[in-house]
Amino acid sequence: MGLLNKSYYIIAYYIVVATFTCLAFSSLIDSYEQTAVLPDGLSPGSMRVTVSMSEEDKESSMKTGRLIKKLTTQSNDPFLLYKDISSYGKAFFLQDHSLPLSTANGHQPKQGHSVVVLDHEMAHNIRKKDGEKYFRFNNRDYEVIDFFTPKDVGMELARKFFITLDPTTNVTGMYEVDGLSMDSVDHALKSLQKEEPSLKFEVTPLRLTVSERLEHVIQDQLVVVASLLVTIVFIMMSTIGTTTAWIDARRDEIYARYLVGARFRDVRRWLLKEYLFVVFGSFAVGAMCAFLLLAVGAFDKVVTSFDGRGLVTALAFCLLIGTSTLVVATWIDQRKKGIIRKGSS
């Protein structure tokens, strides 16, 4: 009870620090994990292909069907080909491959049919004809075979519809390929380039490097990162003072221990044990506060999940701060107030 009575201020201090760090680290770790999730059901081995023409030849007569033929003849492996057709939709071609979307009824497109899979929110755009449902895009009707709920990956705008790829469209554009090796895609594009030398292409993996993922996290969690940096500065400025005040409140106990023959390292070990006990208890309360704040949606615009790894990281952060500040604070107290007897160690 005596420890509790002399530790109210530092307990309140660490509860606030623990609450914020649990929320902050959970949000950062969740955001980092999200950067590994590729859009539209693509697997980690997917790649982005950009096909364009040189400046002097801005229009190509080559059609998308030629690219599809080159890819299918280059490899017998099943693959998926997406092509960007608008900021809200993509066209797809499937070669013995399923469309990797979480659809309501699990229906898959049939080869040779002009079909579309729609976001549930696009249901109001459906037209009925001869008892069937259709979606119109670029003056062409596509039969609606199923609906899906888009997954927010945080890095790309969620697509609202996926239609069958028209092989008669111009070959230039941006594609995603899933299921083929980069060498196979590269060979197919080089073969295409031999037929039309003015064709240019670029193939890049969709999976981000660690540095790129961290860059996305900083951009996505700018408020959290800025708040965390400000908090760290605040902790550096105030924690030692707070800990020194806690030590001052225990001065009688410290002197009593010296009177019975304790040395400085014995006193510091005792202080550290009691200080970490306070930190652990405060952290437990702070973690519960963070969980309750998240449960009531207090920070739902910034923090969306309570991650166990964020909890462990926040605990390690608080223990590191607690241990280092107590060691520094006892050394400062020794120099300023001479709580250690001369010659003790």
Automatic annotation (TrEMBL):
UniProt protein name? FtsX-like permease family protein
The record's GO CC annotations read:
plasma membrane
Which residue range or ranges hold the ABC3 transporter permease C-terminal domain? 228-331
Tell me yes or no: is Membrane among this UniProt entry's keywords. Answer: yes
> How is it placed in the membrane, per its record?
Multi-pass membrane protein
Q: Where are the transmembrane segments?
A: 7-29, 222-247, 275-299, 311-332
InterPro entries to which the protein is assigned, alphabetical: ABC3_permease_C
Which superkingdom does the taxonomy of this entry point to?
Bacteria
| Keywords from the UniProt entry | Cell membrane, Membrane, Transmembrane, Transmembrane helix
The reply on keyword Membrane is: yes
| Principal place of residence | membrane
Question: Where's it found, cell-wise?
Answer: Cell membrane
Organism ancestry: Bacteria, Bacillati, Bacillota, Bacilli, Bacillales
